[in-house]
Amino acid sequence: MVQENTVKNITIADVAEALGVSKTTVSRAISGKGRIGAETREKVLDYIEEHNYTPNVIAKSLAQSKTYNIGVMIPSEYDIIDLPFFQSCLFGIQEIAATMDYDILLTISKPEDTSQLERIVTNRKVDGVILMRTFVDDKQAKMLAKRGIPFATVGGTNVKEAIQVDQDHQSACKELTSILLMKKMKRIALVGGDEKHVVTQKRLKGYLDAFKEAHIPVTEDLIYLGMNNPVLLDQKIEEILKKGADCIISMDDALCGSVLKKLRAEHVKVPQDIKVASFYNSSVLENNVPSITSLSFDEKELGMVACRELMNAIEDKEINRATTLGYQVILRESTLQA
Amino acid sequence: MVQENTVKNITIADVAEALGVSKTTVSRAISGKGRIGAETREKVLDYIEEHNYTPNVIAKSLAQSKTYNIGVMIPSEYDIIDLPFFQSCLFGIQEIAATMDYDILLTISKPEDTSQLERIVTNRKVDGVILMRTFVDDKQAKMLAKRGIPFATVGGTNVKEAIQVDQDHQSACKELTSILLMKKMKRIALVGGDEKHVVTQKRLKGYLDAFKEAHIPVTEDLIYLGMNNPVLLDQKIEEILKKGADCIISMDDALCGSVLKKLRAEHVKVPQDIKVASFYNSSVLENNVPSITSLSFDEKELGMVACRELMNAIEDKEINRATTLGYQVILRESTLQA
DNA sequence: CTGAAAGCGCTTACAG
DNA sequence: CTGAAAGCGCTTACAG
């Protein structure tokens, strides 16, 4: 009310002086730590409420050696742009972080490049980090482990210091494949991206599991990984068609989009001539005709869990070293029997 | 080399003591500010290089009342998920910020909700902010202006304190509309999203401009804004078809995707029965058959410029109050003449 | 060109 | 239950 300008921020010292108590007391009233009389506490709290005092987080940071920031690392690979995955996940992270008064420091870089991550770590700008994607040989995870800073990974990793939060891609892919096998498909092609992604390996394993469980020999010749290149993909799709596949599982919707495009170009009809299934159930394929059978995951939940576990680690609370979230199989026109 | 563990970080005081100089001198050697002998500076720089000293940014922050963070606000509206726009833009921001040793503090919230933004501002966690989307009555921009913190907007705004960086949606939409008019289309429908977005208004203006310039009466009855609801949109598309439109311009690719879906459902062929054009040229429609005529913008560039200008403002350098970036019109099958 | 000292705004043993 | 004082690791007038 009486405050004329916002130039000068009120500090803990101002409050202490105004109330005739020590800074220690004010600090304790605010933080809730340490013994303090209920009456004194009330008095302080009322005062700061009225004069809307807000603590200087930077000063707090310095005194406590904490930043109240968590780093979030997004890989800058081109295909990422296409997937709404990261955005949904980020929403979840932010939602949890905000309730704990933490903020998100965003970093984007290539997975082999640890420099951005090193920067925020050596600059002491974060208390922990979340890696949004894991790799088979994960430089970033290793670096964080070596430096001893708490971190969570979205996706599995063999770096044991990590707090892992993952969707069950293996079971998901296994169930999808099993269903397709039960639908009497014999030659099911699997098309995937970078083999260095842990998630690619998990899906492959699920695919193989399904065959094993059904006692059907795996169609090894129909497994195509590393299909990040559209030209290469087109070429391999032709190969797949020649080999007489009756179904193609794509490991993500962007990939599946490219597959569908190629099939159209080749005048191969879905699902009449060949069945198609995908991962993610994202908006990328939302408008496709026919509708596409897909595996669906809750990405926001994934972000929330990762953030919550990381916060627990930062605050030395109990944590789950590894959490696995569920999935849904959504059957649609693209795998309909003739 | 000799360092056995990373537990204890080396400080400016350690360096000073080891070298027999004052902390002031060390500080000056590092920052480059203030007079200092070339020889002394060398000595200090060599030492910190060798012992890989890294400054504590938090301490620096407190002393300078600077955070070396910029806040980036992403609106949490559902349709955002679909557009790769923000991700590309973020890449650009990060690229510039990193070179200046700044980091990105990410915030996500509803446009009417200023609480998240207030939090990072009152917590003094950022030196400036970038708003990734503007609104006709922009609460967040107004709040930042009132608080006197430097900010840039991606998109236009009437809040004069803002540093505006925008794509020329008005000219883009005008040129697209003009081309369609020249192609002898008479009844061009315009379908757009939220009228409260500044960008929606700009596109509308461009559309109207084109008619005016061509001395053709505007097809007012074919303008449909606020089409964020799929059910509503479907209904309006039927209306548009009944009214005999020969073309539909959609204000973004997600919207256009829904339009195309509805047209397919109604067995209306593109481009034979009706032409279609869109904005953004994003991956969302990449695989559509026919290919879709679209306006294309350089989103990464947009982020880079916004970030650069904001940094200049923060460091009290000269700034451009408003920057407008170009666009491309990409003509494809969806507007081909019969 | 260099340094002693105060200051940024908090927290936290330690003592009472 | 409360406080004086030291400390977090920098920067920056001020003086020499």
From TrEMBL, chains A, B:
Keyword Transcription regulation listed: yes
Keywords attached to this entry: DNA-binding, Transcription, Transcription regulation
Domain called HTH cro/C1-type: residue spans: 8-40
Transmembrane segments annotated in the record for this chain: none
Residue ranges occupied by any HTH lacI-type domain in the UniProt entry: 10-64
Pfam family, any one: Peripla_BP_3
GO molecular function, one term: DNA-binding transcription factor activity
Taxonomic superkingdom: Bacteria
Name of the protein this chain belongs to: LacI family DNA-binding transcriptional regulator
Lineage, top ranks: Bacteria, Bacillati, Bacillota, Clostridia, Lachnospirales
